[in-house]
Amino acid sequence: MTSLLQELRFAVRSMFREKVFTAVVVTTLALSIGATTSVFSVVYQVLWRPLPYPEASQLYRLFQTTTPGAGAGPHRDRTRVTRPVWNAWREGAHGFSRIEGFKGERQVLSGTESDDRLTVGRASAGLLPMLGVQPSLGRLWGAALEVPGRDGEAVLSHSLWQRLYGADPGVLGRSIVLDDRVHTIIGVLPASFQFEPEVEVWKPLALDPTTEQGSALRVFGRLQPGVTAEQGRSELVQLALGAERVPGVVVTGMSLEPLHQLWVEQSQTQLQVVSAVAALLLLLGCANLANLLLARGSSRMHEMSVRLALGASRMQLARMVLVESGVRAVLGGGLGLLIALWGRDLLGTLIPPQLMSGPGVEPFVLVTASVVSVAAAVLVGLLPALHVSRGPGAPAPMARGTRVTSMGFTRSVLVVVQLSLAMVPLVGAGLMLRTVWKLQNVPLGFEARGVTVAEVFLPLEKYAGEDAAASVARNLVGHLESIPGVQAVGLTGNLPFSGSVWRQTTGVHVMGEAASTEASAQAGYVPVTGGYFPALGIPLKEGRYPDARDTASSPRVVVVTEAFARRFLPGRSAVGARLELDVVDDGSRKVHEVVGVVGDVPMERLSTVPSGDVYVPLAQDLRHNLSVAVKSTLPAGQLMPLLHQRLRATDASLRMVKVRPLETVVEESYAQVRVVGGLLGAFAVLAMVLAAVGLYGILAFWVAQRTRELGIRSALGATPRRLLRMVIGQGLRLTGMGLAVGLVGAALMARALAAMLYGVSTYDPLIFLGAPAALLLTALVASWLPAASAMRVAPNEALKREG
């Protein structure tokens, strides 16, 4: 014990004597452990860890499909389930123990200090029990409440309970007002429940048969034990084909998707790429440590020979080096844990929140990454001691006449490996950052600058008839237009980039043409007022915008996009065409005349090519939940109180929430791509730093070990420039080999990123030339520093130092 404490004190003193070396080792360990642990903690939770529900592998999301045949089509061909099909599945499917429905809505919370818009989940009574959730307070509702007018009970999420009621356990029995309807709070869900993380209030799924007959639902099912997914799907296909149809909705089959797979499919590629780069970073860090410690071990050969000669045992030498390496490893591991905790929060923006529950960092991932890195530090640090102590005699010091251009083969290989590994994230980061730049400059089809948007709740039940409600909407637009500085105001059911969760589609049939059964017969469906287009600067290409003549009692009209006209009305003028549109929410099919054509807008995301939308006059399809777009010369901060003031002047019961610039909405649409690019960029910088440190370390060691030879060469007439070329040349030779190998790995990385790129070639010449150039410049700087040290070696000092 006393001996171990002495060696520990010696290790600490050694660290203070070798501050630079210790800092490099600790930093390398911290970056390697931190980056790798944060990434693989997230990857484990998302891709490998089972969902936190009983028998989670039996949980599936059920879709209808419009693709011909009964198989599961691509994601765009999966549609939500209509009520008749859901009923048929619930009543006739024997391969499932439960089939439950869910519908998300935005509702206004009233009666608090400031009105707010909440996401409300209307769920069938068996959904939460199917997931094995029990409320932390109170109870859930029963099937008897799935009737319109009786669905007045609500269960709060844990976060809303804390936010509104300060985690008061006496909240049960109190009232909460949603869309001006009073609901009784009967329960609070546990904090760990993240099934639909955006939902803040849960209530019974009571579908009104007069207005929601064709309502599209998210449907989830649990297979019976022993029933395969294919067996369950075959049963549901037959039931769906035989169910009562919603007009215009062509059901050709169904898709059965494992719940876990469905949640991760949007993040899987990004996480696989990031985890591959993190693994490369870990390998690079280990190679860096190995190189540094081998070089340092070689420099201690003489010290260890002396210790052997003085009677030190092989075990004592090994333990001394082990303690030194262990102390550095503990420091690096502790710092790496802090980096891992920070990195995990950043990675959380890439994946669905329902997959991010659990500990901050998975313990087994932390242990695994730490063991790999620390083992590299400890085991490689032991190699010189084991080498010295192999035989009865001590090894002789390095031959003083060793050629200055020779380097240890192992250390040279490690430098090449480091440089080649650094090339991979550097190219990946370049491609992703180029994609972000392209997305920032992609034509939007509208002008976001100077536009402020907000969500508005229109209480339709309060007004007698559609004309009265439409009059309120017109008055609201008029009041907002009267604000000084406001140039245009429009109301809409969906803003661009509002998310596919809330995006509505409609079946399309062109009158006079054969009916289509293809998925392409679906188009986006957006209710708007005429001022919406000027507010967003969407150009009119043909015809007119919706205006005051388009009322609830007038003939139905639509404005279509250019992409819609190209798909459905090729080779002809779209204006005057007659379309049958299937409004799924009320199960009706209605004829509309096209009165205008406008420019295309990418409604879901910037990288999605517009496939066609129809804009319906809001007066002919009023909605509770609307968004307002205000084009103004005033900034959003000054405009906000004026908007609220004019809103109350229109009708005190109107609510406006989530006021923000439209530019913010646009930026959020490519946030995930920006995060991936930023992560790869950070990894690329770390990789370049580690590679440069490794190259600098090996060249600095090389120069230090040959100080005498450099002095002799200088004394014999070698100029400083020649010595400079000698050292830099050695570094550039290693760099060239590393770049050649690294370009192969970079090409594989580019292929993996292909699906996430936009407007950038997979093998973009600018990136594949710029990345090696950047790494070459970094290597040149790393080589120049020890070369400059070699130039300063005076012949007489070198001979004295080594003599």
Taken from the alpha-carbon principal axes, the silhouette is: elongated
Low-confidence stretches: 67-77, 391-407, 516-520
- Helical proportion? 40-55%
Classification by helices and strands:
alpha+beta
With strands numbered from the N-terminus, the spatial order across the biggest sheet is 3-4-9-6-8-7
Summarize model confidence as the mean pLDDT: 77
Tally the structural domains: 4
Tell me the total number of β-strands.
22
As a percent range, the share of strand residues is 15-25%
What kind of sheet is the major sheet? 6 strands, mixed, barrel
Helix and strand layout, with pairings?
Layout: H1 2-17, H2 19-48, E1 59-65, E2 78-79, H3 83-92, E3 96-110, E4 116-123, H4 127-130, E5 137-138, E6 153-156, H5 158-165, E7 175-178, E8 181-188, E9 201-204, E10 218-223, H6 229-242, E11 253-258, H7 259-264, H8 268-299, H9 301-309, H10 314-347, H11 363-388, H12 409-440, E12 451-457, H13 466-481, E13 486-492, E14 505-510, E15 522-528, H14 532-536, E16 540-543, E17 557-561, H15 562-568, E18 578-583, E19 588-598, E20 613-617, E21 625-632, H16 636-650, E22 655-661, H17 662-669, H18 671-705, H19 707-715, H20 720-753, H21 765-791, H22 795-802
Helix pairs in contact: 1-10, 2-8, 2-10, 2-11, 2-18, 3-6, 8-11, 8-12, 8-18, 10-11, 12-18, 12-20, 12-21, 13-16, 18-21, 19-22, 20-21
